[in-house]
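Input for the complex:
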Amino acid sequence: MTSTDPTDYGFKKEVPDGDSLERHVCTDCGWVHYENPKVVVGSVVTHEDRFLLCKRAIHPRKGYWTLPAGYMEQKETTEEGARREAYEEANADIRILDLLGIYNVTHISQVQIMYRAVLDRPEFSAGEESLEVALFSWDEIPWDELAFPTVYWALHHFRDVRDQDRFVPFGNAEGELLKTSFEIMKR
Amino acid sequence: MTSTDPTDYGFKKEVPDGDSLERHVCTDCGWVHYENPKVVVGSVVTHEDRFLLCKRAIHPRKGYWTLPAGYMEQKETTEEGARREAYEEANADIRILDLLGIYNVTHISQVQIMYRAVLDRPEFSAGEESLEVALFSWDEIPWDELAFPTVYWALHHFRDVRDQDRFVPFGNAEGELLKTSFEIMKR
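Predicted:
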């Protein structure tokens, strides 16, 4: 089995001793599977005026373009995680500059921590999780083929502060930016 | 059993199919226990010139003073989590202002997301996880009885920007602040 749904295994939902919320508990051994939000770390990576994007080789949204980003692993910092993801997905050695934003994707319990980063030399190639990796100018970005709304948000938030050395990081997109991102994802 | 260590149950370490890292896998049913860093959400809460601190009623660091903060739960935003923790630990209805900092505590795989927040009315009391809750002026803060280095960092980072409406959030403490925080924790 490759499912990550506990109910596909020997788990039932109950409130463990000393807890206040229902959790998945193994009916055999009593192991409590605590689920907490997962951190996604990634970055808007630029080389000169172009943006590094990866075409996803894996589900969900296989074939769509995304930023180098993925689940943070144990014992690394958020910045280390963002650099590792760029290595894994794009064989790219990036330099993290600063925090761009924190996006809360509550329906899938994700906290996405996104940085601004630079690719000093235009050296990259598709990692195992990418079909293709490329640098796009702003106008060349395949806007109708982006994988997730937060990719759209991060690119636009990046553009809003592109000439600023110091800025307050963004939260979830609002207004027109939010609306447009969801319209694009529905196409 | 109440342990959260998978090796106390029927788990062994192995690399699952399609993965690159070793994970805890149940020897009975094949359930893969993916461990990812946990998000702690909290805030430096002030009422006028005083800081809201909670004396911990639970381990670790029982009896020491901390900020209202704790593990983020599923389906909430980081801001909602920080407000919930203030309710649970201090029966305090706080108003989140802005992001103070992101601290990476890699040896325990925690990402701590800390906000600035205000307690509009000085109404609070000890929640189940607190022995005592109180407002302290800066000079009254029990510096030698703080629970964690990040509590020390967050209070000092707050003070650095107390008169600023917009600022770049902090990362881990460096230099003297880092050194002093660990010296205090050893006492």
